[in-house]
Specification:
about 70% helix, 7 helices, about 0% strand, mainly alpha
Length: about 180
Amino acid sequence: MPQVITAAYVWDTWWFGVAAISQAVVAGGVLLGLVGLKQARKLRIRGYEDRFEERYQALMERLSLAALRGATQDPPPAELTERDQKAVRSYFRLCETQLNMRAEGWVTDATWDLWEHGITDRMSHWPFTRVWNEILADPLAGHLYARLREFKAGVTDPCTLSDFRRWWRGLTGKSRR
């Protein structure tokens, strides 16, 4: 028996096609929205990282020439000016904030690799070692720089996010630099 195509059949088929196309458009819009969210999050993280780098450069520029040369002199200079001590302590506060931001998932893995080596290297040279030892010897300073103390004790990466959350937040991948 031949199938009779009625207006109702054509109408139903046409609406089925429209529904399928609209679902595809909505799915594409949702996908583009998710990609946009991921990119916006990545840009915000880059902004944080850039501000930290600017703060670091400003602190290094505040150090005197003697403090900058002291890392390579043997023996290092005997005196450290008050201005240099202030710059070094400000650097420790910057490191503490960087560690806190990394723990919260606001620093990419590639940037953290650079910062981790930089913090380790910088804190192994005079005048940073001298000021750090003064802080450790001060019984009233025990509450200062908790994350930095953990870092120095061997906790190298404070970020405990899962691999998926790291990826979703835009922390994984190659360096942008």
